[in-house]
Structure formats: structure tokens, C-alpha cells
């Protein structure tokens, strides 16, 4: 992305600060199997990969659409519980609520004045979320990607776990960083973060429609496996998952136009940490009457410890609150000096 007011771009390699990884999950709706495989499982792998991890609960992003205040608080705690239950260690990773660190909102306003309308007009997610009612959408939903850029650059994160649906937002973050660095003559002040796409991050689809992504907002609870579902519920949902009448193919190419079959095979592969080819070596030629019970057993075995620990934490939220408070303080210790320096660079009055 470019803008007519930009001067010559700075050297992209000017940043020399430490590596940092940042990501978050929005505090809206129940977490599901797609969140576990696409985010939580990856987060636990990243925390021991050598770079400090900042993992937040995105409650500021959540209110871009209406949220019941009482539910928002509960959902914030539930996501924190999922972080902990999935194996994240608050001694290694900084876990915090986004809204508890005021610097997120402060930096987002500065970036609102750096980003260009043309850049935001090209954001496809706003078009998808607003649909035919763009005029009724909140301004916050429109500027959501700018706040996301602030989330990342506030900690000078160099790497961001990114799914396909978020790559455009990360590109915008890089554009905002480059334009700020250029406009204010501070080469290397903000890094240009890179996407982290390696590792298991399958695109998990609905159990009722293999062409639609598994979603917290889907009105049908049968479309997803919630992380708080018990073993019987998980098994029942997989047994009822939509499939076709054909047996599983013996090669991955045979899954081509079979969206529901491809989704279930992908789920098995991700849960077992094997390839889809290996799944089909074991189950190719067999019907779903054989495959679904095996998938259900695997899903229950994988998720039961997470679900059980989440329920324990949610039964007494004192432990969660301690983790969030400590995480917010540690995050602010990194974020506040960055915003102070931004204010100095921009020219704001400072006592």
C-alpha cells in the first residue's frame, strides 16, 4: 500500500530490537476447537521457541459490536482460562486483558492519524462483517485494523502468528509502521512485523457446513465443538457432523470436492499431529461409521484435559484474576515507555 503523501520509504531492516511474539483472541462467544487448533495449541509451542510471547484477551476489539457487559467480563476470564488450560505458563508468557493497558487506545489514536482512508477501504474483513448494513456499523469496526496495528507495535512485536484471514491486517500494520517511521524521521523505531505461518494451523470448518469456517457467532451450537463441551457432547456432535455417503478416499486428492470429508480428516490430522496422508493410509476406503467414532475418541482424549482445567479455573476465578492483573502490569511496563516516546516524537506537550 502506498500514499501520495509518503516520502521515500525507510530501510525496512533498520529495526534492531529484540524478537517478540504477540497475538490475542477476541473476548466474544465461546471458544471452540478451531480456536484451540489454530491459536491456543500454537501459542503453547511458541512460548518455548525462544522469543517472549505477549498474549492478550482482545476485549477492546470485542466491543466493535454490541457485547453484554456482564458476559464480556465472563468471556474475558474464559479466554484467560483457556490460555492457562492449554498449557500457557504465565511465568513465561505475558497474559493480560487488552483494555487493562491504556497504551493500546492511546497508540491507536495516533495510528488513526497515520493510516489512510484508502488503506482501510481495502480491508475485506470490514466488508464481510458489515455486509449490507455498512452505515449501521460502528466506527470501531471500521478502524479495527488500526487498533490491531497498535496492539502489535505497542510491544514492538517482530512476529505475529497469522492465519489467512489476518494477513491483510498484518500488511496494514507494516504500512503504518513504515509510514510513522518515515513521516517522523525515526528509522527503525517500529519494526515491520513478520507473519508466523509455520506449524499446525488448520482451517477448521463448521461441522454442519464444510464450506463455512467454524465460528463462535454461528447460531447453531451443533456447528462447533466448544472447549467447555463434555465428552458426551463432543462425541454426539461428531457423530452428527454432516458427511456424504461415500467412503473415505485413499489419497488426499480424492478429498477435492468433498468439503465435509476433508474437514473431518483435517481435524483428525491436526489432533493427532500427523498428515492427512497418514490419516487416509489408516482410514482410506472405510466409511464414516468407522471413522467418526475414532475421531470422536481422539477429540475427547485431546480436549478433555483442557475442558476439565477450564472448568476448574472458572469455578474459582481468583487464580485467573491474579494472572490477568500481573500480566497487565508486566505488559504496561513495556507499553507505557513506548507510548511516552511516541508522544515525544509526535510533539505532544509533556511536563
Short description:
The chain has 351 residues and is mainly alpha-helical. The chain has 14 helices and five strands.
Can you walk me through this structure?
By secondary structure, this protein is mainly alpha-helical. The protein has helices spanning 33-46, 59-62, 69-85, 103-112, 117-121, 124-130, 139-142, 144-153, 167-183, 231-239, 259-272, 276-283, 288-315, 318-346, and strands at residues 21-26, 53-58, 93-97, 159-161, 194-196. A three-stranded parallel sheet has the order 1-2-3. Strands 4-5 form a two-stranded parallel ribbon.
Number of helix segments?
A: 14
Q: How many strands in all? A: 5
Largest pleated sheet: 3 strands, parallel
Poorly predicted runs are 1-10
User: Mean pLDDT, as a whole number?
Assistant: 91
| Rg over alpha carbons | 22 Å
What oligomeric state do these chains adopt?
single chain
Strand residues, percent: 5-15%
How far is the first residue's CA from the last residue's CA? Answer: 37 Å
Major beta sheet, strand line-up: 1-2-3
Helix content: 40-55%
Structural class: mainly alpha
Amino acid at each position: 500500500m502506498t500514499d501520495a503523501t509518503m516520502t521515500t520509504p525507510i530501510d525496512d531492516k533498520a529495526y534492531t530490537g529484540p524478537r517478540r511474539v504477540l497475538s490475542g483472541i477476541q473476548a466474544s462467544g465461546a471458544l471452540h476447537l478451531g480456536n484451540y487448533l489454530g491459536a491456543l495449541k500454537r501459542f503453547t509451542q511458541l512460548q518455548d521457541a525462544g522469543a517472549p510471547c505477549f498474549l492478550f484477551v482482545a476485549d477492546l476489539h470485542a466491543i466493535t459490536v454490541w457485547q453484554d457487559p456482564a458476559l464480556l467480563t465472563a468471556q474475558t476470564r474464559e479466554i484467560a482460562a483457556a490460555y492457562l488450560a492449554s498449557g500457557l505458563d504465565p511465568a513465561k508468557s505475558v497474559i493480560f486483558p487488552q483494555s487493562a493497558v491504556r497504551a493500546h487506545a492511546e497508540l491507536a489514536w495516533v495510528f488513526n492519524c497515520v493510516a489512510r482512508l484508502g488503506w482501510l477501504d481495502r480491508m475485506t474483513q470490514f466488508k464481510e462483517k458489515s455486509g449490507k448494513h455498512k452505515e449501521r456499523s460502528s466506527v470501531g469496526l471500521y478502524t479495527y485494523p488500526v487498533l490491531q496495528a497498535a496492539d502489535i507495535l505497542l510491544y514492538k512485536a517482530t512476529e505475529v502468528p497469522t492465519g489467512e484471514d489476518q494477513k491483510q491486517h498484518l500488511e496494514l500494520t507494516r504500512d503504518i509502521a513504515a509510514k510513522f517511521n518515515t513521516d517522523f524521521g525515526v528509522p527503525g523505531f517500529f519494526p515491520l512485523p513478520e507473519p508466523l505461518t509455520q506449524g499446525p494451523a488448520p482451517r477448521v470448518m463448521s461441522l454442519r457446513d464444510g464450506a463455512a469456517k467454524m465460528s463462535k457467532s454461528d447460531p447453531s451450537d451443533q456447528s462447533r465443538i466448544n472447549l467447555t463441551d463434555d465428552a458426551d457432547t463432543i462425541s454426539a456432535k461428531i457423530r452428527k457432523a454432516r458427511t456424504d455417503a461415500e467412503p473415505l478416499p485413499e489419497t488426499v486428492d480424492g478429498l477435492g470436492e468433498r468439503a465435509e470429508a476433508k474437514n473431518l480428516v483435517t481435524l483428525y490430522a491436526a489432533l493427532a499431529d500427523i498428515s492427512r496422508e497418514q490419516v487416509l493410509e489408516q482410514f482410506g476406503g472405510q466409511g464414516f461409521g468407522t471413522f467418526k467414532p475414532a475421531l470422536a475418541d481422539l477429540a475427547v482424549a485431546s480436549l478433555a484435559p483442557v475442558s476439565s482445567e477450564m472448568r476448574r479455573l472458572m469455578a474459582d476465578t481468583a487464580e485467573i484474576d491474579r494472572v490477568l492483573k500481573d500480566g497487565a502490569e508486566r505488559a504496561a511496563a513495556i507499553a507505557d515507555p513506548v507510548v511516552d516516546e511516541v508522544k515525544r516524537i509526535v510533539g505532544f506537550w509533556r511536563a
